[in-house]
Amino acid sequence: MCPSELYTQATCSGALACRISIACRGLYRQGPRPERVHRASVGNFLFSLTEDYTDRALDLNEFIEHPSATFFFRLHGDSMYPLMRDGDLLVVDRAIAPRSGHIVVAIHDGELTVKRLHQSANDAWLEPENPDYPRLPCSDGTEIWGVVLINLHWPS
User: Fold this and answer.
1) Comparing C-alpha atoms, which of 152, 73, 153 is closest to residue 113?
2) Do residues 128 and 80 lie in contact, with contact meaning Cβ atoms separated by under 8 Å?
């Protein structure tokens, strides 16, 4: 179980070009409930929300299988753009076994980075989504820290 107030910031340099803030402050914080909305208009579409649905509190624990191994990360940098953007909040699970194609948080050459893991019969590498950044070959100095479960993005 993570401590109730843990905050660490790591700064990456060189090809990693990222900075990740690690925070673990509990997965659910109660706060004031939003005002109830029963009808909302989106473009030309009109829909109604039932009172049961709007009264329900959001609980991220519903989506998390391993709460004691799950952490929040704040992403800084553009190596995963356009999939992930600077400022996105990542929910990362350390208990999931990483597989090829997963987005992972990795320690590569002593620094934290977020990339897509690729594996073949002979090697493995960390691939950025942004073509302006190079792929990072996995070596003895590479450790997969966890698998990204959820990417929370706020519209800019």
Assistant:
1) 73
2) yes
pLDDT digit string (tens) for 29-71?
A: 334 444 444 444 454 454 455 555 555 677 777 888 998 999 9
Q: Is residue 114 within 8 Å of 104, Cβ to Cβ? A: yes
> Rounded CA gap, 75 and 84, in Å?
8
What is the rounded CA–CA span in Å between residue 77 and residue 27?
24
Question: Which residues are marked as active site?
Answer: 79, 115
- CA 65 to each of CA 25, 98, 103, 110, 153: distance values in angstroms, whole numbers, following the listed order: 17, 15, 17, 28, 21
Token couple for 115: 């990339």
